[in-house]
Each structure stands twice: as structure tokens, then as C-alpha cells.
Amino acid sequence: MVPVGAGPAPNDADEDEDEDEEEDAMRNRRAIVGLGLLTLGAGLGAQSGGYPHANFIQPEGIRASASYTHVVEVTGGRTVYLAGQVAIDAGGNLVGPGDLRAQAQQVFENLETALASVGGGFEHLVKTNIYVTDMADLAGLREVRSQYMADPPPTSTLVQVVQLAREGFLLEVKGIAVVPE
User: Is the pLDDT of residue 93 over 70?
Assistant: First the structure.
């Protein structure tokens, strides 16, 4: 990735402002009722997300997000660093030239393959960095991302850049996962 910015870029907090409050409320209800262990103490809500060595925390006083978690506390497991994945298939071909949604599908498939190679899955992701060359189709990116990400989602940063490592790449996603010992 070429670390050249296009001036001040919005982050997920900015992108979140236009999300539907009902979606936030529904996700929170599902997390509390169906998936997580909700612990209330010291002003923090912690959810295990089905993984006993990580607490996904939405601190009181910071607006909760449906698309990322503000804090993930890791208390065990193996830390795995995932290189930035781009829309290249196993044959080395660019998937979805000019189509962010198609590229996102391939990127998340690549992340799934990378996680599986160490015995992990999306439920083990604790951090993602997402780089896009254009913020125009974030709805398509969010739609694809939501098909893969576990609930609660990992911490995440979204940044717009001028260009990625190769012409034609519209998206790159890297991550950190914690998988069981």
C-alpha cells in the first residue's frame, strides 16, 4: 500500500453518523440476548463474542457503533497478524476491476482463507484496518463486510488513500486476530 493520503479522511466515527439507530439497537439486543456475555461493571459493557479470551467493549460515554467495537481486551490465545488483502484471486487475477463491492467480496474471501490457515475465523478478528481509494460506495462495502464479520465486530479503522499498491485496487483490508492456543 502506498501511504499517501488525500487530505483529511473520514474515519468510521464519521461514517457511522448516518447509520440507522434502529440497526444499532437491534444489534445490541442480539448481542445481549443471543451471542454474548454482557458484563456491566465500572461503566463498561463487555461481550465475549463467543471467544473466551477477548472482551469486546463499548465504553459508556462513547457512542456505540454497529459496524465496529471501540475496545477489544485480549486475555489469552495466539496473536495472528494478517497482511493487507486485496482483490486478487488464487490465480493472481484482479477481481472486479472498477467495482468496490466485487473487490470487497474477494478481499473478505482472502481474509477468510488467511484466518482458516491458522485455525481461525472472523470471530477471532480483534482489529481491522480498511483502506479505500474512494468513499463513494461505502454502503456496498458495509453490506459485504456484514456478511463476514462476527458479532460483536472487531475494532476498525477506515481510511481513504490516493492509491494502493497496484493500479486497479480499490480496497485493502488488514487485520489482527487472536486464535485459541
Answer: yes
Contact predicate 150/68, CB 8 Å: no
Topology (CATH level 3) of domain 12-179 = 60s Ribosomal Protein L30; Chain: A; (3.30.1330)
CA-CA distance, 71 to 108, in Å (whole number)? 22
Grid coordinates representing 111 are: 481474509
Q: Which of 10-14, 47-51, 81-85 has the lowest mean pLDDT?
A: 10-14
The overall average pLDDT reported for the chain is 79
Give the residue among 32, 30, 14 at the shortest CA–CA distance from 22.
30
What number is the average pLDDT over the span 159-180?
97
- Sorted by where each begins, the domain ranges of the chain are 12-179
Q: Report the relative pairing of strands 78-85 and 39-41 from DSSP bridges.
A: unpaired
Distance CA 45, CA 55 (A): 9
Is residue 142 helix, strand or coil? helix
